[in-house]
Amino acid sequence: MPAIPTMSIPVSESRGPYVLAMDIGSTASRGGLYDASGRPLKGSKQRVAHSFTVGDCGASTIDADQVVAEIGRIIDGVLHFAELNGLADRIAAVALDTFASSMIAVDGDSRALTPCITYADARSAPYVEQLRERVDERDYHLRTGVRLHTSYHPSRLLWLREEYPDLFNRTATVMTIGEYVYLALAGIRGLSTSMAAWSGILNAHTAELDTATCEMVGVSPELFAPLAEPDEPAVAGEVGRRWASISGVPWFHAIPDGWSSNIGPGAVDSRTVAAAAATSGAMRVLLPEVPGEIPEGLWCYRLSRSRCIVGGALNDVGRAVSWLEHTLAPVDNLAGILAGPPLPASPDVLPFFTGERATGWANGARAAFTGISAATGPEHIWRGVFEAVALSYQRVWEQMARAGATPERVIASGSVVVDHPEWLQMLADALDTPVIPLTMKRSTLRGTALIALDALDPGGTRALPPLGTAFDPVHVAHYRRARSIFDELYRKLV
Question: DSSP secondary-structure letter at 223?
Fold first, then answer.
């Protein structure tokens, strides 16, 4: 497989201001130095691998102090690179994105009482059901832009209070992983507007802490740090001895990687949609204001006073591909099958192998195949599953338009796009819109640098990300018919 570019440039071709950008992801912490154009400097990249600890009853955690140590090592490495290249005193800011929807209970001495509870931790599921019995979920969704779910703070706070009362009583504050890292390394306290939104505790319409949610779960607003806008960075108070060169520069409060994942590939306005297709999937669009009524199948996260992001997540994209790979006999000319015209013997599929998020949020949904005949072979099943995944994106797309998106193109990225780029023809057909593959890696980290640069260097010239050849819609009528069958199956089986 050919190498995927990163947009990196030699120091000699770079220009200031420079941003030390970092990312805490599901599989690693990363960092590097970015110039004013939003391009990484060759040789500055740092990476420390990690993994989540998965346990019984849906636990998914990572040691918070381990992540602090990883980010410390990354800063050490980037600053060493900067010193060797005469750039140490030209770093203008520090920026960080993290996986979203994390939570850590912290005591009055700023020590973690729990591991970092990740977005994938489902132990609070019974308390989601309790909340649904006690409150109007539609009202909660209209206020906060999110549904009641195990990824968000409300059910987790109830779970901690009920299951671990002694620990909960010792909790002075609740933090996300980015907040905890900043507090531990730099003495900075603050919760970005976007991270509060991804935690399910922000009023999407006012960009303030949603006090009704605090009342709903019986906690004080003082449990959370003060909110900070994207253009309101802090200055580190405790890094002078270790990192003197950045002791006086602004540290932009940690933001969720979902925002960076739009900015890095260039999906920066309502005309361009970002479609991520990896183990799971997502489709997101930036809007200048929160919709008056947020479509019930989507989430809407407030990013700042003037922007929000609307979209939906799919459980099974790469997971569906893995099922095909492990279940079916090998298929000759798979690329041609995926890129070619519809195959008449293909089954109709509901691709919910691990439940559904957007747009129906049916956790108990399971995959279903209909219309299989004696003529159906492995290639038809591959085709049917990929078509169904494309239709799942189409369902999100349809509601995004109701929210005010006016998309003209889609930029697609992720491991499924890299491994099966031909599938983008199906996605273009299903959406009746051109789909363009992103041909670079680490676009999320780049997006975080760009968001900081927009505050540091407004109006500055940025490099354009590398994009592949667009897939234009061809078989639109087929997908209109397929969507009708999909919806009928959904009504009967989910």
Answer: G
Backbone angles phi, psi at 428, to 5 degrees: -60, -40
- 0.90 exceeded by the pTM? yes
Please provide the distance, in angstroms rounded to a whole number, between the alpha carbons at the two ends of the chain: 39
Q: How deeply is 325 buried, as exposed, middle or buried, from its count of CB atoms within 10 A (0-12, 13-18, 19+)?
A: exposed
Sign, CA dihedral 456-14-241-178, equals positive
CB 174 within 8 A of CB 104: yes
Radius of gyration of the chain (CA): 23
- Beta strand 435-437 pairing with 281-287: unpaired
At 289, list the tokens: 């204001």
- Each residue's pLDDT, cut to its tens digit, for the chain (494 residues) gives 456 667 999 999 999 999 999 999 999 999 999 999 999 999 999 999 999 999 888 999 999 999 999 999 999 999 999 999 999 999 999 999 999 999 999 999 999 999 999 999 999 999 999 999 999 999 999 999 999 999 999 999 999 999 999 999 999 999 999 999 999 999 999 999 999 999 999 999 999 999 999 999 999 999 999 999 999 999 987 787 899 999 889 999 999 999 999 999 999 999 999 999 988 999 999 999 999 889 999 999 999 989 999 999 999 999 999 999 999 999 999 999 999 999 999 999 999 999 999 999 988 899 999 999 999 999 999 999 999 999 999 999 999 999 999 999 999 999 999 999 999 999 999 999 999 999 988 899 999 999 999 999 999 999 999 999 999 999 999 999 999 999 999 999 99
CB 68 within 8 A of CB 223: no
Secondary structure string (H, E, C) spanning 297-327: CCEEEECCCCCEEEEEEECCCHHHHHHHHHH
Any idea what the Cα angle at residue 327 is, between residues 325 and 328, rounded to 5°?
A: 75
Amino acid code (one letter) for 52: F
Within 8 A by CB and 6+ apart from 97, the residues are 22, 23, 24, 178, 254, 255, 256, 257, 259, 260, 444, 445, 447, 448
Question: Measuring CA to CA, which residue among 171, 156, 164, 146 is closest to residue 102?
Answer: 156
The beta strands (E) that lie in 99-146 are given as: 104-106, 116-117
297, 395 Cβ separation under 8 angstroms: yes
